[in-house]
C-alpha cells in the first residue's frame, strides 16, 4: 500500500439550513468535492441548525459547507457555530459558507468562525483548493 492510499480522505458535509429550497449549487459542490476525492455527506433540504450540528458531530466531518440563499445567514450560521462550540467541534471543523451573502455581512460571519465565504461566480477549483489547504489534519 502506498503512502497516498494510506492517507485519510477529507470528510465533508454540505448542508442546507433553514427554509431555503434551492439546492442545485449544493449538489454541484457536493459532486465536485466527491470528484476531488473528498468523502461527502449531503444533509438534504430544510435542516435546522441543530440538525446540521448533530450530523456534523456524529459524522465527525473535517469540513462543513453551509449553502444558504435565503438571507437568513446572519441568524442560522451563528446558531450552527454555537452548536459546534457546545460539542467541542468548532476548533476541529473548517466551516465554509456559500450562497448569496452580502459583502457587509461577511466580517460578522468570519468573526463567528466561518473560514471562508464563497459567493456566486466562485470557481469550483478555488473552493477545492481552499479545502485542501485548510482542512484540519487529524
UniProtKB/TrEMBL annotation:
GO molecular function term, any single one: cobalamin binding
Keyword field contains Isomerase: yes
Domain B12-binding stretches: 9-138
InterPro entries the UniProt entry points to: Acid_CoA_mut_C (IPR006159), Cobalamin-bd (IPR006158), Cobalamin-bd_sf (IPR036724)
Keyword RNA-binding: no
Swiss-Prot/TrEMBL cofactor(s): adenosylcob(III)alamin
Sorted UniProt keywords: Cobalamin, Cobalt, Isomerase, Metal-binding, Plasmid
SUPFAM superfamilies in the record: Cobalamin (vitamin B12)-binding domain
Matches recorded under CDD domains: MM_CoA_mut_B12_BD
Pfam families hit by this protein: B12-binding (PF02310)
Source superkingdom: Archaea
Family note: Belongs to the methylamine corrinoid protein family.
PANTHER family: METHYLMALONYL-COA MUTASE, LARGE SUBUNIT (PTHR48101:SF1), METHYLMALONYL-COA MUTASE, MITOCHONDRIAL-RELATED (PTHR48101)
Name recorded for this polypeptide: Methylmalonyl-CoA mutase
Amino acid at each position: 500500500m502506498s503512502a497516498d492510499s494510506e492517507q485519510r480522505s477529507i470528510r465533508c458535509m454540505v448542508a442546507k439550513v433553514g427554509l431555503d429550497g434551492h439546492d442545485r449549487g449544493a449538489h454541484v459542490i457536493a459532486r465536485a468535492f466527491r470528484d476531488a476525492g473528498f468523502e461527502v455527506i449531503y444533509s438534504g433540504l430544510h435542516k435546522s441548525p441543530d440538525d446540521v450540528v448533530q450530523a456534523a458531530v456524529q459524522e465527525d466531518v473535517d469540513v462543513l459547507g453551509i449553502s444558504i440563499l435565503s438571507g437568513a445567514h446572519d441568524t442560522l450560521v451563528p446558531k450552527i457555530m454555537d452548536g459546534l462550540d457546545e460539542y467541542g467541534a468548532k476548533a476541529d471543523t473548517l466551516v465554509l459558507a456559500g450562497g448569496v451573502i452580502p459583502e457587509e455581512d461577511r466580517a460578522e460571519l468570519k468573526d463567528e468562525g466561518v473560514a471562508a465565504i464563497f459567493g456566486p461566480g466562485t470557481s469550483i477549483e478555488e473552493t477545492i483548493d481552499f479545502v485542501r489547504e485548510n482542512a484540519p489534519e487529524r
